[in-house]
Amino acid sequence: MHLEWLTPDDSEGLRLWDEFLLNTPRGHYCQLSTWLRSFEAYRFTFTVLIARRLPSCPIAGGVGVLQFGNETLGLMTVPMGPILDIGCEDLGQPLLEETLRHARSSGVFLLQLQFPCSVDACSAALLETIPLPESTQAHAGLPFSTAHAPNQMLWIGFPRESDGEVWDEQMLRGFSTMTRRNIRLSQKQELELREVVGESEMRQAYSIIEANGRQQGYATRSWDDFGPTLLDQVAKRQAIMLVARHCNMPVGAHYGVLAGGRYSYLLGGTVRDGGDLKIGHFLHWMAMRKARELDLLGYDLTSGGSAGVMRFKMGFRPEHIAFVSPRYYVFSRWRFELFTRCYPWLRKHKLLVSRVLSLPALSR
After folding, report:
1. CB–CB of 156/321 below 8 Å?
2. Domains along the chain with CATH numbers
3. For the chain, which end, N or C, has fewer CB atoms within 10 Å of the first or last residue's CB respectively?
4. Separation CA 272–CA 202 (nearest Å)
């Protein structure tokens, strides 16, 4: 077995890592280098540990790690890893042991991990478990939510034996009566679908998502922070931005990421004066059809949201797959307690982050 750490400057190594995540059924969008790099806007850094059977063999597994802070208040987090190709489950423990060693040597006070594992479902995308190193005690939970990694899937698997109208009907029969009705209504509203790739169209699409977030009372990353990631992912065919238009005006946007042979929905929005066009139903249905066109295995609605959003998503009758509990390792109890107390305030005062990062290192 050969283990190797990749840095953000290792473009060829990261290209191969992303390619691995796109092709293995166990890939996850939160491990894509483009997704990890997006958090550099918030002063995170990232590295990726890859595993090969031999130095000349293809990548068989790996884990992407985000690091925040300095030697006084530094933490590491693994958003959904390690990723192990089918038949390479034995690489999980060595990858975790090396990640744990790396965290200790880096001087951080905390390492937290989310695992692509579930005991509730039989899916090629998931493992049942990954053995944890026995040298250090792990605690259950996720003290600090980072990288927007939902600890679940809202999974809609696709029929594999049908296509065209037969496939459409099979899919629609799996939805609730109301959702099925709204999808059919949306297709009578003269809505036009576009897949956008240019910066001006992408910026316009994302402005709909930002406005929707403000109206619904949830935070979205600004275009300045997240726009470069969107452009990079779309250019690399890791993500798709769909736009619904009506009377030649954009009325809805849908951003989804491709990894693990599935289409994962992350962000979307519709204009407030969209009337009764059923734009949301239209966009999700067209995204599913796009995923089928790409020969993907299915569609993941990922996370829940508000009560209204959850009702909307559950109309598609997804299978809720809960992941195993995250784990975390504490290397310095006093620094962990200090950061725990500061964290809510730091989240509200992001400008203070730069001051925290400039603090001189204190004794551990």
Report:
1. no
2. 2-149+324-357 (3.40.630.30), 159-296 (3.40.630.30)
3. C
4. 19
